[in-house]
Amino acid sequence: MAAPKTHELIDWHCNLWLPEHYPAEHWQEMVARMGPKMHASPADFEAKVANTAEKFVLVAMKWPRLGTNIPNDFVAAFNDKHKGRSRAFACVDPFEPNAPEELRKAVRNLGMSGLKMSPVYAGYDPWCKEAWRLYEVADDLRIPILWHQSAAYPAQSMHEFGNPTLIDKIARAFPKMRMIIAHVGQPWIGETITLLRKHEQLYSDLSARYYRKWQCYNALMLALDYKVTDKLLFGSDFPIQTTQEALDSFRDINNWGPGVTMPRFPDEIIEDIIYNRPWSLIWPEDGK
C-alpha cells in the first residue's frame, strides 16, 4: 500500500530538445541506441512528463567538443510557460571567456534556477580554473549545481573526469551550495553514496537507473545501509523513460521473478522518495 502523499510528485531530471540541437552523427547514434525514445520535443514533454508529474526539473546542455547545444533560452522559454511547476538548470561552456556572464544572464534574465556541469561530456577537469569560476558565480547567486558526474556513452566522452569523488574538494570549498549528483554517479555508485553521507548539501537523483535493475537495487541498498535514502531524488531522465515508466520500474525494483528471493528494499521508502522530496531541499527559499 502506498504511503500517504504529503508533497508533490516531482520529476527531478528531465531533458527537452530538438534533433537540431545535436550534430547529425551524434543524433543518429542516439537514435540507433534508443530508437523513438530519443524524441523530447515540447509536445512530447507535455504528453509524457507534464501530464504525470506535478512539478519537474529541466536541463540545458552545452558541450561544444561534441557539438551538442540545447540552448538556455530554449529551455527557459518552456520553463517560463510552466512557471510554478518547473525549475531549469542552465549550462554554459567553462572555456568561453564570457561564461560567468552567460550564467548570470541565464539566472537573472531567463529565470533559470541552477547550473548543469558535465565534465565527462564537455571535456574539462572539474578542478580547472575555468570551471572553478563558475562555482564561485553559482555560490554568489545562491543556485545549486546538477552534476553529470558519471559515465557517458559517446566514444569521445572523458571518463577520467567522471568520478564523483572529484566533487569532494568542491563541496568542501562551497559548503552551503547544494549539489545533485545525477544517475547516482554510475558506475561510481559507492563513491556517490559515501559523498551523500559526508556532505550535508549533497543529493543524488536515481534517473536512468531503474531499468538497470541490479545496479539500481544495489544503489538503493547501499543508501539504506549508509542511512542516506532521504537524500535520493526521483527522476526519469526523460526521454530515456517517461515519468510513468520511471515510476512503474522503480516500484517494481523488488520483483525478481518466480523462485528468486532477495532482501526487500522497503516499499515505504520508495514512496517516500517519490512523494516526499520537496523543492525546498535544493531551493530552501521555497519553504515547502
Can you summarize this structure?
The chain has 288 residues and is of the alpha/beta class. Helix content is 36%, strand content 13%. The protein has one domain: TIM Barrel (Alpha-Beta Barrel).
Present the secondary structure layout.
Blueprint (H helix, E strand, L loop, with lengths): L9 E6 L8 H11 L7 H9 L4 E5 L1 E3 L4 E3 L1 H10 L4 E5 L8 H10 L5 E4 L1 H4 L6 H13 L3 E3 L19 H7 L5 E3 L7 H10 L3 E4 L7 H13 L6 E2 L9 H9 L15 H9 L13
Parallel strand pairs: 1-2, 2-5, 5-6, 6-7, 7-8, 8-9, 9-10
Antiparallel strand pairs: 3-4
Helix pairs in contact: 4-6
Order of helices and strands: EHHEEEHEHEHHEHEHEHEHH
- Mean pLDDT, rounded to whole units? 94
What's the CATH H-level homologous superfamily? Metal-dependent hydrolases
CATH topology: TIM Barrel
Number of helices: 11
CATH class: Alpha Beta
Which structural class fits the helix and strand makeup? alpha/beta
Radius of gyration: 18 Å
Q: Using DSSP, what is the number of strands? A: 10
First CA to last CA: what distance? 25 Å
Question: What is the makeup of the main sheet?
Answer: 8 strands, parallel
Across the major sheet, the strand order is 1-2-5-6-7-8-9-10
The figure for the number of domains is 1
Low-confidence stretches: 1-5
Task: State the shape.
Answer: globular
CATH architectural grouping: Alpha-Beta Barrel
Query: Helical content, roughly?
Result: 25-40%
Strand fraction band?
5-15%
